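Worked example

This section walks through a single chain of length 244. The input is the sequence exactly as stored; nothing has been trimmed or padded.
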Amino acid sequence: MTPIILIPARLGSTRLPGKVLADIAGLPMIVHVLKRGQEAGLGPVAVACCEAEVAAVVEQHGGIAVLTDPDLPSGSDRIHAALDVLDPTGRHNVIINLQGDLPGIDPAYLSAVLKPLALGYDIGTLVAPITSAEEAASPSVVKCVCAFAEGAAVAPALYFSRNAVPSGEGPLWHHIGIYAYRREVLGRFVDLPPSPLELREKLEQLRALEAGMRIGVARVPHAPFGVDTEADLEHARQLLGAKN
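Given that input, the structure is written out below as tokens.
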């Protein structure tokens, strides 16, 4: 595999506008995410953004930024457009989609997301154990229906939901929105229209499952914190400020 890490970023977040440029421990959040991607040591890292302001900040900190059409509907479309600019000859056959609101992501998680591809899956992603009733009940925590064989690090994803599924006794799994795509699969995915279950659950990955693509999930110890609210931002400042 020859991965490239692409970070979709836009200023127009609905819950926390401008968060990708929010200051955390002296650096804009997008720069923290860029650094985590670089620390993984897997391949080149670039930010796919739709505002010149974001591109300028990334470039000021030594990163690569690609401006994409602001009308693109999703981060997946944005990284696909950036890929065509950065790698028109197809040198990179695996694309890692790293969300731009995960400033404290463990770089090792970016290696973990490749494990399902090594086992033949079309798309790789991550899950972590759900550890509280509050986490299980929260619709902002996406759950993955999967079952790991004894000793296995990877399992097939059967479904994703905002509800606490499956029912019955057993673990629940928190889906972490980092993806690894085979290049041809990413191209096929963005060419598909939104699917019925995707629209119902408001979860883009269901489009892939409905189209017959195989998603494998690698398990990691815990979910990284994402920045979606002012409280999340303050939490990130405390955690990352303590490390510096």
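What to look for: The mean pLDDT is 95.
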